């Protein structure tokens, strides 16, 4: 199997696993958002294959989540909260390579980019949920951070060892036998 075919297969598996894990909620917030491990396969894949492949797998995952039960109030909100937000997780791949500090930086970049997408969506499309007199930016940041911060910590704790384990397997699979 060529490396390109293997990468496409791995990306599809990461997106599918992300969809499955999105339905295993550890905690759910009342207006949407939940603590899950849905980012773990996407982060591991991005750290293994880089940003381009990571963004593609994340975008696919976001589209799958949108099609299988996404909450939509506006077409732009749907794009921002699903394919763009999950595609942004793939930015973790910018820090592809060995070294725990690089991997943590990748997790922070991917998770932070996803948070930015959700905060922007919250400000533009869900400002009415903010209590009267509350700064809508702070409200959206705190609301979205409430589920994304623990999700990123849990997903990162799973993604880093997974990426390290898979890195050895990818290297073995690519070598001639």
Automatic annotation (TrEMBL):
GO molecular function, one term: thiamine transmembrane transporter activity
Transmembrane segments: 79-95, 107-130, 136-160
Keyword annotations from UniProtKB, A to Z: Membrane, Transmembrane, Transmembrane helix
Domain of life of the source: Bacteria
GO cellular component, one term: plasma membrane
Signal peptide: none
InterPro entries: Thia_Transptr_ThiT
Name of the protein described by the UniProt record: Proton-coupled thiamine transporter YuaJ
